[in-house]
Amino acid sequence: MHSLTSLPINPLESPYLKKEKLEVRTYQVKIAKKCIGQNYLVSILTGLGKTIIAILTTAGILTRSFPNSKIVMVAPTRPLILQHAKIFQQFLSVKINEESVLTGSVKPTKRIQTFQQRRILFYTPQTLRNDLKEQRYNLKDVSLLIIDEAHKASGDYAYTEIASIYHESNPDGSILALTASPGAAKEQIHTLCKNLFIPNNHIELRDREDEDVKSYVKQMAITKIGVDISDFMKEILTELNEILRERMIFLMNCGYLIDYNGDPIEDVDQLTRFSHHLSLQLNTTLLSRSQELKGSVVLPDSQDEYLYQAISVNAEVLRIYHMIKTTESQGLNVLFEYLEQIQNNIRKSTASKALKNLASDSRLYLLYKTIRDKANSDSSEELIHPKLIQLKDILTEELKENPQARILQFAEFRDTIQVIYNILKKLPNLYPVRFVGQNTKSKKDRGLSQKDQVAILDHFRQGKYNV
Fold this sequence. Notes:
Elements: H1 26-35, E1 40-43, H2 50-64, E2 70-74, H3 78-91, E3 101-102, H4 108-117, E4 120-123, H5 125-133, E5 142-147, H6 158-169, E6 174-179, H7 186-195, E7 203-205, H8 211-214, H9 231-253, H10 276-293, H11 307-329, H12 332-347, H13 353-359, H14 362-375, H15 386-401, H16 414-424, H17 450-462
Parallel strand pairs: 1-6, 1-7, 2-4, 2-5, 3-4, 5-6
Helix pairs in contact: 1-2, 5-6, 9-11, 10-11, 11-13, 12-14
């Protein structure tokens, strides 16, 4: 690290901190002290001040580092890093403004110039990764890399590559990873730390029951409401699970099915040990093996006889898992749209081999036809998930009791958002609006620009929308 001293630093004593403007909490200072000069993962609830911890850590690093050292912060979106830059500007006596925020909309020559001139910079991860890969500059003079929404550091997301380049070019530099949701499983946290070069004993976790944060956490009333799916949905799920089971038996007989412990699944009674997640892992394994065999001298083993067939069958398995999850979580109306999309791909001859094989299963076509008949009849309401009927009642009652309420309704899939929106917009006193990402999936599911997203949030605050 570009350090003048290895002595412990109290960030509150840093000349770079505008102490008179900052109301710090004991746990924030305690955590920041640990993070100064070391790689740490900090996971605390939203609203407990992750950004303040980043500011305190930054102040400490600036105090102990050479004048030419830099601080870099990355966050997934431009609005988020603009927000961070604004807060940093408020509490640190270092030149920070909107020009310190570097995204793909800023020309590369300007980014190079800004990097050379500023001590604290804010990036979207793709922009920083591209600049580093193009060798426009390096991170040798960066004393601290702050990674917000660090739980995204998996797979081929830019965070993992940035962390790797930073660690390789500047092993003495430190990393501060911030998140409100590192993952429920220990394995996920371990993978996250590994990807970001953070020791497993350098993790600061806080939840609402921890003594030092308890008094700052707003109390929430959490009510879980269970609903039973309809008999018609149960029939559809039974048929889908049977179609899935046959394909899993084929993969099992080929010796490809393993459970989370890496043990082979060798009996139909053990098929419950397999899952959607393991099917995704199997897909990666099979494709990797096919690449090894392509144009190489690697000798095939006995399993390779069925390799390409297994790739295709597992692709079918992934689609059936999606159908099951769609039915369970979203309803048969969304499943119907998915099945209709498959039929359109078949008609247009744009379907893959796996999709053609799946669509040729007469049972699946019969399911599609049965749901389609229901959709075109007076019984179309049966396709809607029962939880959405419950949702209508809950929101109607809430706004009846509190007409000024603002309601956030989350959904896992964008298809579900459209279904919910179509239902709610027909109800009195409910003024819903879709809030989704920037990617446009189809004519029916258009993305929102960052400008549109900001406008929607403003209208939500003003009451033009209340859901």
